[in-house]
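Supplementary notes for students who missed Thursday's class. We covered one full example, reproduced here. Read the sequence, then the structure, then the short commentary at the end.
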Amino acid sequence: MPQSSIERELAEALGRRLAELRHQRGLTQEDVAQAAGISRNHYQLLEYGLGQRDSRKPANPRLSTLVALSTVLGTTVPELIDAMFTDGDDADGRTVDG
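Structure (token representation):
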């Protein structure tokens, strides 16, 4: 089944957000993965927006994984997901939805 570009864009946006939160907290990928109960490789793939390295399929993490990562990174699942749909700020500093 072909992958849609929106799936890839959302997976990459999630990965960017995970990396941003991790860097803000001064954590390594290993720190986050261990605290969330997943492998470092799995977490690394999520930051790259990938579900599997070989197939290059977009990441599609389980809800339980998102809950664990949100807890470790000091946020909530809704806040984590909301960031995936935000393009950035406009000239007034307001959030612009994509």
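Commentary. The CA atoms of residues 62 and 88 lie 26 Å apart. The first strand starts at residue 86 and ends at 89. If anything here is unclear, bring it to office hours.
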